[in-house]
């Protein structure tokens, strides 16, 4: 009997070069051209003095704006490739951010443990809470064979409840400058720190998903869990670790968002899981599992960011953004050829 990986379908990243492989890049570039053309039309009409959409400052702003969703989408990519879904990442983000803020605030008495600790402690608290929540969801899914939708829906409600119970539903503000640096600081006075964190997360996740045995096992479990188990893969452990990754990155996103806004709100992260799922699906991942690429997720997040930024610049109402985003998700799923195989 050969190595178990010999019988497992290789990741989609190994597929031959094709239009489908780079279609997401062309879609992103096409969207940028379209938005820039519409902005240029405003200039020609005399409504604006200049077209600032493709300026360095605005492009950096877009990356800054997608940093939270991008980090969440990375974790969601692991989950979706494993044929799962995680509805709890928005609530876990809020819970992690609240725990971090309670240890990085100058306000006394917010919680029994509140205070201004060295910045490493609130960071560890946020990441630990996120990983714990994700691991618990993964354990329930693997141990009791409960559908990921149900298990993570339960965690969504539980984490939101814990978030409100920490401070009685009150926000936490007055965060230390050292902690806020993770959301508002800049490297070389140009690159926002959240953008750097996003880049590091994507790079590390890409290596794990494409260059390690664990990454191959994630694709294997998502492609055919029964065959993966027959090949000797501990599918339960893989599922648990996949949700640990998603929860851990929700903790990272919680740190970024809390540091950016300067306070922890009990409503933080509401519906963020939908944006993360949208980025993954638009990026070409199959909800049936076994198919997905982090580069696709990155461009999926960029497409959402460019769309939101462009429509804001053009003065389009926010509810139209939701309509367009919903349409993009439906079209992406319709164009996914693997959905027929799943049926």
Q: Can you describe what's shown?
A:
By secondary structure, this protein is mainly α. Helices cover 68% and strands 1% of the residues. It has 15 helices and two strands. The chain has helices at 19-44, 56-65, 67-81, 89-102, 120-144, 148-167, 177-184, 193-211, 213-223, 225-230, 235-261, 272-282, 294-313, 318-334, 338-342, and strands spanning 186-187, 191-192. It has a two-stranded antiparallel sheet with strand order 1-2. A hairpin with a 3-residue loop joins strand 1 and strand 2. Helix 1 packs parallel to helix 13 (294-313), helix 3 packs antiparallel against helix 13 (294-313) and helix 4 runs antiparallel to helix 5.
Low-confidence stretches: 6-17, 339-343
Number of strands: 2
Average pLDDT score: 89
Task: Give the strand order of the largest sheet, numbering strands 1, 2, ... along the chain.
Answer: 1-2
Residues in helix, %? 55-70%
- Structural class by sheet pairing and helices: mainly alpha
User: Given the structure, what is the number of helices?
Assistant: 15
Radius of gyration: 21 Å
Query: What global shape is seen?
Result: globular
Distance between the first and last residues' Cα? 31 Å
The largest sheet is: 2 strands, antiparallel
Strand residue content: under 5%
Topology summary:
Blueprint: H1 19-44, H2 56-65, H3 67-81, H4 89-102, H5 120-144, H6 148-167, H7 177-184, E1 186-187, E2 191-192, H8 193-211, H9 213-223, H10 225-230, H11 235-261, H12 272-282, H13 294-313, H14 318-334, H15 338-342
Antiparallel strand pairs: 1-2
Helix pairs in contact: 1-13, 3-8, 3-11, 3-12, 3-13, 4-5, 4-6, 4-11, 5-6, 5-11, 7-11, 8-9, 9-11, 12-13
